[in-house]
C-alpha cells in the first residue's frame, strides 16, 4: 500500500491536495511562550483572558506570568524541574503555566478531580518540585498528600479572584478564610504574580524541550506520563490556527479542560498563536457555559460529544447561544452521527469530528474545512477526518503490516506531533512507540477515499460466541433513539456465549423509555449477535473530567 507524501493513503486526488489552510506550518514557533510573546508584541492591549467579568490583556498576562517565573526561580526552581498545576479553567492556570515555562520548568497538568492516591502517584512519579493548586484543595487534602513527596514549593490560588465582581454564586462556594499561619507552607499565586518580580534570563524553552508530562486518564491502567515537547504543541497549535481560518484576535471558548491535552493545544495554544481571547468559565456546567456563550460570543470551541449532549439538553438552550461560532470541534470521546445531525438541525453549527491522543499531542486527523465527513454505510460509524500534513497514519495487523482499505486493524501514527515516549518508562515506550511510531491501541480502518474511521479500543472488543462486537457500533445505534442522551456498551460474562452485550444508557431530560424498548430498538437494527441482551438505565454514566465515558467502571459494576 502506498502512502502519499502528506501522510494520507494514496486515494482520490482531491484528498491528496490539501487546501493551503490545511498544510503544515512552514516554521512553527519553538514554544508556546515564544508564540505568546509574539502575540504580546502584536496586540499588547488586546484581551488575552476573559473570566466571567474579569479581563486581562496580553501585556498584563505577560507581566503577571513574568513575576510568577521570577518567584519560582528565586525559590530555587531550576531548568527542567517539574511544576504540577492542579487548577480548573481559570486565569490562574494560564499564569502558572506561562510562569513555569518562563522559568524553564516542565509542567505536569493534574486533573483537579484526582483524589489523594492519584495525586500522590503523579507527584512521586514525576518527582514534582513545585505544586500550584487551589487554596481549598490545599487546605482540605493536598497539604497532607504532598507532605511525603518531593514538593518543596507551593502556590495556591482562589478561583474567585480575577472575576472583577467576585460573584460567588457562579462558582457555588464562598471565599476560603485562611488561617493566620497559612502562609507558612504556601504562597498566594496572585500576590506573587503582582509582586513585579523579573523572570530569569536564558531559560527560553526550546522546541525539543519537554513542555508537559501529561498523565493518561488511566482508563486502561496506571496513568503514564506522556512527554509532550514544545515542538509537538506548537506544530499542532499552528495546524489548528491555520486550518480553521478563524480571524486573528477572535475569541476561543475553553470548553475542554486546560489540564487535558485537547484544551491545552486546541484552545489555549491555538488561541495564543492567533493572538485571540481565551474565555474561561471555571469548569463545565451547562447553564454557566451557555450564559458565557452569550456574553463572550466565541468563534471557536472544542469539547467531547458528552458536553454537546449536555448543552443541547439544557432547558434554556436556544439557537442564539451558538450563533457566533464559526467552528465547533469535537474530540476526546466518540461522536455519534445522530448527535451531529440533531445538533445541526436544532442549533445550526456542524460539529467537526477529529481524532487524537495525549501521545500525539491532541489531533492527528481532522476534517478539512471545506468538507463534511462521510458515515460508513456498513457500520454507521462517522469518519474522524483525514490525517494531517506530514502525518502518516497506517492501519496495521498484529505483526505491524499494512492491511487493505476497509479492513480493521490497529491505528498507528507517525508525525511531528507524536511524543518521544513516556516519562521514565522505557519498557512502555518501546511497546507503544516501536521505531518512533505510535501504536494507539485503537481499532479502525481507512476507506478507499482516504477517510479514517475509529471503530473502538482494542481492549473493548466483545467476543460473543466467536463473533466480534465493537461497542461503538451498538452505541451509535442507541444514540439514534430519541430518548437516549448517553450510551455505553460493554461485554459481560455469559455461560452460553462466553460474552454478551450489555448497554448502559442515560435518558434525555423529560424523555422516557424502558430497557425492553431500547433492546428491541437495537434488535431491529443490528445482527442477532450484536444487539444488547441487557439494557440498564442510569441517571448519569461515569466519565473522566475530559468527558470520556468510563466503560471500565461499568464493566466492574456488580
From TrEMBL:
Q: Where is the signal peptide?
A: none
> Which residue intervals define the domain AMP-binding enzyme C-terminal in the entry?
473-548
Q: Where is the AMP-dependent synthetase/ligase domain?
A: 36-423
Give the InterPro entries listed for this entry.
AMP-bd_C, AMP-bd_C_sf, AMP-binding_CS, AMP-dep_synth/lig_dom, ANL_N_sf, ATP-dep_AMP-bd_enzyme
Could you tell me what this protein is called? AMP-binding protein
